[in-house]
Design brief:
There is one protein chain. This protein has 195 residues and is mainly alpha-helical. The protein is 42% helix and 8% strand. It has 4 helices and 4 strands, in the order H-E-H-E-H-H-E-E. The protein has a two-stranded antiparallel ribbon. The protein is elongated. The relative contact order is 0.12.
């Protein structure tokens, strides 16, 4: 059910962005270009499911950003895209819904292109900050989990071991991310304790 809702959210974002582009409506688009498309005209390259599991840098695309120009979203394989389905959570969705509402009502757009261009740097800055906080939080809780396993094993007089599938792939030898199959990693004390 979650997957279906997610797909409908993407579809609504595509339809809204396509409509805005066709009517030259000032709009906030979400775009993700490939490295090759930044030097020439943007090209659409559908991303395989294997590539979708990689980080943007690993699959040759730039991070997703907001823009007032209707450019492709390489990660989704769409010619245009916007987020529009969560106006309570995201101000950009709220703006886009107002723009579409004014178009459907035959009224002038609520926001001009210059208004949109003034808002976008703030949206991108907030998105970057949120992404960094989320990465830090995920890393923190992963380390807390490993710390718990480590010290529980030590209290029992056992060797701390973590077994599982590491999903990220990293070609750097010796990194945790190089393992693709179920892997057992023996933890060694390093004298660091999270507080």
């Amino acid at each position: 059910a979650n997957g279906m809702v997610s797909e409908m959210m993407v579809l609504s974002g595509y339809v809204a962005a396509k409509t805005a582009k066709e009517h030259q409506l000032p709009f906030i688009y979400r775009t993700q270009l490939s490295f090759s498309s930044t030097t020439g005209s943007p090209q659409i390259n559908l991303v395989s499911s294997a590539a979708a599991a990689m980080s943007p840098g690993e699959r040759g695309v730039l991070p997703v950003v907001s823009t007032s120009d209707p450019l492709p979203h390489q990660g989704l394989g769409l010619r245009v895209y916007s987020r529009i389905s969560s106006p309570i959570r995201r101000y950009s969705d709220f703006i886009c819904q107002h723009q579409i509402r004014s178009l459907l009502s035959g009224l002038e757009p609520v926001f001009s292109k210059s208004d949109i261009e003034e808002i976008i740097p703030h949206l991108n800055s907030c998105t970057d900050t949120f992404t960094e906080l989320q990465k830090s939080s995920n890393r923190y809780w992963a380390l807390r989990y490993l710390e718990e396993i480590f010290f529980k094993a030590l209290e029992k007089g056992e060797t701390p071991v973590v077994t599982g599938v590491v999903k990220n792939r990293d070609p750097v030898p010796g990194s945790f991310r190089q393992y693709e199959e179920s892997t057992t990693i023996e933890l060694q004390p390093v004298g660091i304790r999270l507080t």
